Amino acid sequence: MIPDQHAPAGPGSADKFDDEHYPGYTMGRAAEMLGTTQNFLRSLDEAGLIEPQRSAGGHRRYSRHQLRIAARVRQLVDEGTAIDAACRIISLEDQLHEARRRNTSPHPVD
Fold first, then answer.
1. For a tag site, which of 2, 54, 61, 88 has the least CB within 10 Å?
2. HTH merR-type domain spans which residues (predicted)?
3. DSSP 3-state helix, strand, coil percentages of the chain (rounded to 5)?
4. Distance CA 74, CA 15 (A)
């Protein structure tokens, strides 16, 4: 019998690929995917908008969710918004979205 080459490598490993919060991207790869610099990603960390996880060696690791947030900031910066203002805008948009979600939920969360 030939082993399935698409089978997960171990218990729970397939879940990592489906988890948008799994920190699967190095800083270099994340910057490359976003078409930006590593300094841009560091500035988002310093602003408190994105807090990447750290590898055992202390290197920043980003999730797909964090990369989507960084892409939103990058779009605003490319349109001429200062990075600190762009971070604040994204933060406020997320707070508004969460408030709307709670207000439309059939069972409000305390």
1. 2
2. 24-92
3. 55, 5, 40
4. 29
Query: How confident is the model over 10-49, as pLDDT tens digits?
Result: 455 667 778 899 999 999 999 999 999 999 999 999 999 9
Higher pLDDT, 107 or 78: 78
What are the φ and ψ backbone dihedral angles of 106, each rounded to 5 degrees?
A: -65, -20
Establish how many alpha carbons lie within 13 A of residue 17's alpha carbon, considering only the half-sphere containing its beta carbon: 9
- Cα separation, 104 vs 10, whole angstroms: 40
CA distance from start to end of the chain: 54
CATH 1.10.1660.10 fits 23-104, yes or no: yes
Radius of gyration (C-alpha) of the chain in whole angstroms? 17
CB 66 within 8 A of CB 74: no
In 3D space, the residue among 68, 69, 31 whose CA is nearest the CA of residue 49 turns out to be 69
Per the CB < 8 A criterion, the answer to whether 63 and 23 are in contact is yes
Residue 94 tokens read as 């997320």
| The residue type at 13 | S
